[in-house]
UniProtKB/TrEMBL annotation:
<keyword id="KW-0812">Transmembrane</keyword>
<feature type="transmembrane region" description="Helical">
    <location>
        <begin position="152"/>
        <end position="173"/>
    </location>
</feature>
<keyword id="KW-0472">Membrane</keyword>
<dbReference type="GO" id="GO:0016020">
    <property type="term" value="C:membrane"/>
</dbReference>
<feature type="transmembrane region" description="Helical">
    <location>
        <begin position="64"/>
        <end position="82"/>
    </location>
</feature>
<protein>
    <recommendedName>
        <fullName>YggT family protein</fullName>
    </recommendedName>
</protein>
<dbReference type="Pfam" id="PF02325">
    <property type="entry name" value="CCB3_YggT"/>
</dbReference>
<feature type="transmembrane region" description="Helical">
    <location>
        <begin position="7"/>
        <end position="26"/>
    </location>
</feature>
<comment type="similarity">
    <text>Belongs to the YggT family.</text>
</comment>
<dbReference type="InterPro" id="IPR003425">
    <property type="entry name" value="CCB3/YggT"/>
</dbReference>
<feature type="transmembrane region" description="Helical">
    <location>
        <begin position="94"/>
        <end position="120"/>
    </location>
</feature>
<keyword id="KW-1133">Transmembrane helix</keyword>
Amino acid sequence: MNNALTFLVVTIIDLYLYVVLLRLWMQATRADFYNPVSQFVVKATQPVVGLLRNLLPTVGRVDLATLIFAYAIGVLKVYAIIGLNNYGFSAPALFINGFLMVVSAFLSMIFWILVIRALLSWFSQGYNPIEALLHQLTEPLLAPVRKILPPLGGLDLSVLVVLLLLQFLRILIGI
C-alpha cells in the first residue's frame, strides 16, 4: 500500500513539475505562447506563478518566479518521499535533493521531448501545433550540433548527439 501511494504522489508531483519546467523552457526559448499546448501550460501554472511574479522579477530570459516555483515542487517531492516512507529528515539534504530533483526532471523532460520530436518527424504529414512547439523548444539545442556535424546523406544525427550528451550529464552528476 505504501509503495502504491508513494508512486501515485510522486507521479502527480512529477507531472506538474514537468509542466512548470516546460513553462520555464518555453519562456527561455521564446516559444509561441499562442500554441494550444503553450496555453495549457500557462493556464496550469499561472495561479502560483502569477502570485510569485509580484515578488520576483524576470532576469533576462529567466523567470525567477517560475524557477523558484519549480524548486519548491522539487523540495515538495523530496519531502513527500521522506514523509511517505518514514525516512530520516535533514533540512540541508531536503533542499539539496530538491534541487537535484528539478535538474533530473529537466534533463529527463528534454530527453523525452527530443525522442518525441524525432519520432514525429518520421510520421508527420504537415503542420501540427505540437510538432511546431517541439521544434521551437529543441532547435536551440540542436542547431549548434548541426553546425559541427552536418546532415549525412539526409540523416540528421544532431538529435542522437544531444541525447548522448544529456545521458552523459545525468551520469556525470549522478541523477
